[in-house]
Amino acid sequence: MPDRSGPPSRARVGPPSRRAKVLLLTAGVLAALFVLFGLFAGLWTDWLWFDSLHYGSVFTAQLGAKVGLFAVFGLLMALAVGFNLWLAYRLRLPLAAMSVEQQSLDRYRAGVAPFRTWLLVGLSLLVGLAAGAAAGAQWRTWMLWLNATPFGVKDGQFHKDVSYYAFDLPWYQFVLGFAFSAVLVSLLAATAVHYLYGGLRLQGPGRRASAGAQGHLAVLLGVFVLLKAVAYWLDRYALAVKSESFKKVDGWTGLRYVDANAFLPAKTILFFVAVICALLFFLTPIRRTWAPALIGFGLMALSALLVGGLYPALVQQFQVKPNEQAKETAYIQKNIDATRQAYGIADAVEQQYEPTDSTDAAKLEQDAQTITDIRLVDPNVVSPTFQQNQALRNYYAFPKTLDVDRYGDQDTVLGVRELDLSGVQQRNFINDHFKYTHGYGVVSAKGNQVDANGNPVYTEHSLPTTGDLGEYEQRVYYGEKSTMYSVVGPGMDEIDYTRDGQPDQTSQYSGGSGVSMDNPLTRAAYAVKFAEPQLLYSGAIKDGAKILYDRTPKERVEKVAPWLSIDADPYPVVQGGRLVWVLDGYTTSDGYPFSSKTTFGDATKDSMTDQRGRTLTATNQVNYIRNSVKATVDAYTGEVTLYQWDEADPVLKTWMKAFPGTVKAKADIPSTLLPHLRYPQDLFKVQRDLLGQYHITDATAFFSGTDIWDVPADPTVNTKEVQPPYYLTVRTPDAKAASFSLTTSFVPSGRTNLAAFMTADADPGEDYGKLRILRLPSGSGALGPELVQAKFNSDSEVAHQLTLLSNNNESGLVYGNLLTLPVGGGILNVEPVYLVARGAKVPALKKVLAVYGTGNVAIGDSLGEVLTKVLGSAAGGATTPTAPADPESPGTPTDPTKPTAPGTQDPDVQKALADAQKAFDEGQAAMKNGDWAAYGKAQEALKKAIADAVAAEQKGGRSGGGASPAPSGAPSGEPSGSPSGSPSASPTG
User: Fold this and answer.
1) Chain centre to alpha carbon of residue 580
2) Calculated CA dihedral for residues 838, 842, 844, 849, nearest 10 degrees
3) What is the distance of C-alpha 839 from the center of its chain?
4) Digit-coded pLDDT (tens) for 921-971
5) What is the pLDDT of residues 122-136, one digit of tens each?
6) In angstroms, what CA-CA distances link 104 with 65, 96, 190?
7) CB 791 within 8 A of CB 855
8) b/e 116-152 (16+ beta carbons within 10 angstroms → b)
9) Are 520 and 513 spatial neighbours (Cβ–Cβ below 8 Å)?
10) C-alpha dihedral over 126, 128, 134, 135, to 10 degrees?
11) Can you list the positions of beta strands (E) in 374-490?
């Protein structure tokens, strides 16, 4: 056999075959098409979504602004860079001087030559795309500038309308920044080209720069310096919105003495210096020398150091510091006035309140409604109880934090029974997206009552729900837990709820919302959007089917109104036969001159933030805020409606011009919805955060900083976060009657005693949003929430009963909301205590803690019991009013079952006494049952009956009548016939 050994043959290496080229080209085209279709799918599905909600104009206006800015500024950048690249090439030397440096550049020039035009166009477009993308992100700034509405308020320094700082100045600063970028990139690109083609040299004899390169770069540097002059001029106005830390205010905004008397003139001087320096650069091509321009540039830099840096430092050190209070007072006052105006706290009413440790029945009568509506059911605690008692199916759930609203005169705790797919036993594509699609109904309970087991007293319950809310569409397709998309429509049965041993209760969606899936292209787009190919070919999708997505109320409103910041807590309202979600929308700005800035996310954070969520603005730094919009989302149809709430807000007016027709007038709010609108929590939290320091309206006192308040930490949890505000029905001393309000407490900075109590009227009406502050004397000794909780925890009787309660039931205890209330001229603190069984983990209210002023702590099974203990004789007098006693035996109650003097046989007297006895008995029974609404009515009836008895007896006395007895069990009062013998009746719970 021949020897075949030898060196191995090498595989032939050459260009790819035609087939390989076709395969590669096909793969590249398919990849490009897939990417393009992905982009198309995103835009197409967004358009379909907006169009289905009839907010297509929002999509087109927003997209038009982004595309327009992208195109215009991208083109400007591309033209600027491209022109300077072309000009630098045209100004190249015809023959580069021979040097080692130039010889090494020859290879690069030769390599670039065949692709010169492509490189110029490609680099210009690349830079243009980057600039266009950055400009497109400024669509909000552009729209605000284009549609600016005057505030009608001028700043205290330059006397310009606030709209200049809020709308105009940000746009000017963006355009200036873009111009700086264009000149800087052009300068770098031109320098590179001049160097490549010999216009600039680092080595060799002769001039380092050719005349063309010198002139070109000098003009670009001149433009750069001229732009710096414009920046100095705008910086003058930017001082009015400049933020720094001052006087324990981290976001202090506005000019101070050194700004107005050093930085402001320095900026003006630097403006003129920069203009002169720019002119020197422009003269460089004519004079053919860099010397004047470089000298001018050096002088400008030195001026910036001396005039803009050293001089203000000297003014601060030698003029301000020796007499800082006198120098800064005028500017502090401007800051105080602007901040209070910008945050809507300028009209807060402050009054002195000197709390006492004792009260009487007459004082308690004025606060009867406050006491009656003390909310024992904590919406932050009882969600597991709602879940256990009223979810009724594993695939339904309630939010972690329930909501509080008013229905009639009753504070009501509400929760929506929403879909929870984690409770579905068999999870698959069909069940997740076609069968289990919605929640069902609202469950509500009285805020001030529990039953004998400590559970809420439900006013709307069961499945389907029945109760006080009447008939309404109960299916919930849009809710806080609706995070999955669903496909619904004719012929597609969806589960309402299941029944043991019976067919499932089903329905078919007829709400009209959603995007039609009849078009195959649309189905393909959604298959890409949701990365679910079954949407393209699934036979479960019938003709007329629609896809529902972006279903949480918050994201729906944020999409149709991208210029709003949405409150973290949407709340449900049943009105007009519909269940709707109500959301509060805020318009904000960070450009209000002299108004201190706050970090929105930090100011709205409290101990319940993790359960509620957090509100963020576009920048998260704001110094102006208004609750300008009330929005609703229908839980069944998903319809989004925006209502103008603040008709004077210039920011809202500006956005309404930018997106015409998207916000309805305030007059269009349905009359059935209006009573349920309330003052929003996040706005209130921002305002209370500012009022901790800005309750001080005098600049001298503000400078001393000795009266700063803090929001107290929540003593019922271990997070060290501040207490959330509470919705309560409460009356402040200057108010005629109790009203549904948002409330909070303040403590002195670094201390734990109570400094102030604040409310905001939450119900729509004349006083809506009115802030009332009860300021306590510094030496009052009133207990702040932490001290109250410590007093509860250290009380031996409380410790004994709570220990006995938890040990006997092998359970844990949860403290409910600690409520602070101004009642009867003092401060009443009430806290429910819940027992949580370790197995079921369902809290049930078992005890109530209370303390009045700095007095003794009381613990009891009901609110009436503890109020009787802490209010003492005042509670007895208020809850068990006296009747006229026998003048022959004052102070001794008369038994109505025993014979009385002949005068008492008057039928009017007997009837009045019988009515009084009946009312008294009903009141006592109501107090035992914790039914404070019934108790309050019984007390009113008792008061009237006693007054009738007194009147009848006085009439009989003129004809020789005798004494009349008091209701059985009631303490006696004044002698018969005395007006003071008819005391004031007032409920205690």
Assistant:
1) 19
2) 70
3) 36
4) 777 666 555 455 566 677 667 767 777 776 766 665 444 444 344 443 443
5) 899 999 999 999 999
6) 48, 12, 20
7) no
8) eeeebeebbbebbeebbebbbebbbbbbbbebbbebe
9) no
10) -160
11) 396-397, 403-407, 410-416, 418-419, 439-440, 442-450, 456-461, 466-467, 475-476, 486-488
Helices marked H in 53-99 — which ranges? 56-90
Question: Which residue type is seen at 7?
Answer: P
Alpha-carbon distances of 361 from 116, 448, 526, rounded to whole Å: 95, 21, 68
> pTM of whole model > 0.70?
yes
**Cα torsion 562, 565, 569, 571: sign:** negative
Cis peptide before 464 (omega within 30 of 0): yes
CA 37/CA 43 separation, integer angstroms:
10
End-to-end C-alpha distance for the chain, whole angstroms: 116
pLDDT at position 983 over 80? no
Q: Is 791 helix (H, G, I), strand (E, B) or coil?
A: helix
Closest CA to 681 of 762, 768, 590: 762
Contact by Cβ (8 Å): 280, 293? yes
Could you give the angle at the alpha carbon of 502 between the alpha carbons of 474 and 508, nearest 5°? 40
Please classify residue 400 by burial: count the beta carbons closer than 10 Å to its beta carbon, then call 0-12 exposed, 13-18 middle and 19+ buried.
middle
In terms of residues, how long is the chain?
A: 989
Instruction: Provide the 10 A C-beta neighbour count for residue 891.
Output: 11
- What distance in Å separates the CA atoms of residue 550 and residue 988, rounded to the nearest whole number? 47
Neighbours of 3 (CB within 10 A): 5
Segment 609-667, tens digit of pLDDT? 777 666 666 667 899 999 999 999 999 999 999 999 999 999 999 999 999 999 999 99
**Residues 986, 926 contacting (CB under 8 angstroms):** no
Q: Are 336 and 694 in contact (CB under 8 A)?
A: yes
832 versus 195: the higher-pLDDT residue is: 832
Q: Are strands 546-548 and 515-516 parallel, antiparallel or unpaired?
A: antiparallel
Give 105's Cβ-side CA count (13 Å radius).
20
Q: Which residues pair with 460 in a beta bridge?
A: 444, 467
> The tokens of 728 are what?
């309560």
Q: Which residues contact 608 (CB under 8 A, 6 or more apart)?
A: 380, 401, 724
For residue 836, give the nearest of 844, 824, 828 by alpha carbon.
844
